Amino acid sequence: MGAGLSYSPLMYRPRSCWSAVSDHLVGEAVQPAARADETGERLADYETRIAAGFDKLASLIVEAKLDALVLLHADRGDVFDLSNTPQLHFQVGGEIWGDPALSPLGEPSSPAHFPCDEALGEFLSEELVRRGFDISEGRAQFRPLGDKGRGASPALTEAAARLSGGLPIIPLHVNCHVEPVLPGRRLHSFGRALAQSAALTGRRLGLLVSGGLSGNPGGAMAGWIDDILDRWVLTRLERGQSRDVAQIWDVRSRTLQGNSAEMRLWTVAGAALEEAGCQARTLDYMPVHHGATGVGFMAWETTSCR
After folding, report:
1. pLDDT value, residue 302
2. Which of 26, 203, 289, 291 could form a disulfide with 35 if both were Cys (CB 3.0 to 4.6 A apart)?
3. CATH code at 2-300
4. What does the angle CA 8 – CA 10 – CA 15 come to, to the nearest 5 degrees?
């Protein structure tokens, strides 16, 4: 089975913190008129729907009776620095940790640690190399180079804490932010190869993607959301047409920077889960300008899904 969700720190914090989080995310950027429509009532509705999205994904992961969870994420200079930014990277064994606290808002340090499945990570890495993909590995000791005090990206840390349910994870970084990046067709091929490799393990693996959708928190267009693009991507995935999503990455655009660039992760997930025979279903979508991100929740599931 598969699960996908956007990332904004706002999603993981109570409504009482949203104003401060939003100010942190959008900074001095001029805001779209639609932000004014996000009244207290609208934001309360968003909070309820976000909680429901988390609960649904968590229950689906539990019901799937998984052995481990492959967690697709994109580093933003926390784990890697510019001296070494791999396109594709597995953390093999040991544990991975991260501290998602927003220190500018006075949040106390709150590192979380997650066990990584060494045997499965090693198996997937080997099979993907055999299929022609250049895989980087971090073995046993997790030593972040980008921000040694922060560790893994908050998109990984907060999603794992909320949804992994204690399962061992297999962190899989896909470069989305440092040029050059893999073309869409290569990402699509990688997703299919990932599913083929996972099928050989004889274990029940789930795939969790955390990142995106559209938005550019902290950037010049922070607070602006391309809900048309988000809905198009989700629809393509629902229809099993991830190959169409892969074609987005043939284009260079300001719209595809920041969080939007992490829709590459959804390209990989869509290709992998289509290969595994899964059907995508959008659980919810909302363009949350206060969170500077299009917030979506998606599940891939069918009785035939491997």
Report:
1. 77
2. 289
3. 3.40.830.10
4. 160
